[in-house]
Amino acid sequence: MELLFKAAALLLIGSLIGLLIRKNSPELALLMNLASVTVVFLLASSVADEWRSAAETIGKLTINAGVMTHPVLKCLAVAVISRLSAELCRDASQGAASSAVELMGTVCALSIALPLILSVVKVIGGLL
Q1: Residue 92 φ/ψ, nearest 5 degrees
Q2: What share of the chain in percent tops pLDDT 70?
């Protein structure tokens, strides 16, 4: 929770500075926003380590858990990266690039989740 407040404060300050700079130099405002998002992303990576260790624990407790957990974690990473990239593109007034990033993120997430979907269908087929 404390990390969330720090991240929110950092992003708020970065956004306010970006708004002040935007009138004179939109490029520097974009770089300011990119820098604040990068710092928050690095802060969030410490929390991701906890998720990774929890996934490893689940993997040790169950048989073939890697088949289930790895695609979910990869899809989560793709979602976060594509969302941040799309928002940065929107911030730079690049709507077409933002839509392309979101579409590519969706396609990547679906391709990553395909083995999981197939394994679920096989399990359901085995039950019928």
Answers
A1: -90, 10
A2: 95
